[in-house]
Design goal:
- This is FAR-17a/AIG1-like protein.
- The protein has helices spanning about 10, 30-50, 65-85, 90-120, 135-140, 140-155, 160-185, 195, 200-230; strands at about 230, 245.
- By secondary structure, it is mainly α.
- It has a two-stranded antiparallel ribbon.
- Helix 4 crosses helix 9 (about 200-230).
Length: about 250
Amino acid sequence: MKAASLPLESLLVAKHPLQRLSSPSRGVSAAVHFAALTSFTLSFKYILDHPDLANEAYGWHFQYLTIIGLTMATLTSLVGLAADLFLSRRLFAVKNMFLVCSAPMEVLISILYWGLRIIDTKLVMPDWVEMSTEADIGFHAIPAMVLTIDLLYLSPPWSIGALPSMGLASAIAFGYWFWVETCYQYNGWYPYPIFEKLSTGWRVVLFLFSAVLMAVNTVLLKYLYGRMNGFVHPESAARPGAVKRA
């Protein structure tokens, strides 16, 4: 059957051979993105309902990498839901572009937050911050889980390599460092207590380590996708659709 004779909707929702579920789609894909946005909205509502020192500070809660990541996750899922509702391949491509950044970032945030919290809660949470268990999970676990699901089940394979991912991660890590130091000049305190405990040199080490870890997350997520769904054949650029199942 010629492509021109196919229904328009069939052409719009055609998916990559390695993509597990149809997306953009008004079915499972839309439900996942809607549920994600509901959770993210409740997290932002929690900030407004429980104001603290950061609400009046320079940079607001965007001093926190957690909130920057949550914003990126919200934008990713919002574009994803729009792609689902309008069956737009263009918006779907934009969602996947955002996902390359937001998914590894959220996994990084979860690893750093829960890892440091196991050592000492006071490393990542100031004394003046009070947070319920539900809110804690909403901020520091659900975004990483939802975006990983989006990646593994609702997206085509990533094409980003190790070196570009390291460049992206470094730009984010040191861009955040500059932003944190700028906020410190106005507020006189750091958003995460661990920054107070480290000298400038050790803060550089921490941000460099974070950049490396985010790049590793990108590579591992890409590998996990391949193990679950299959790998793109090396000659796929010359022969579209040339893929190899794991």
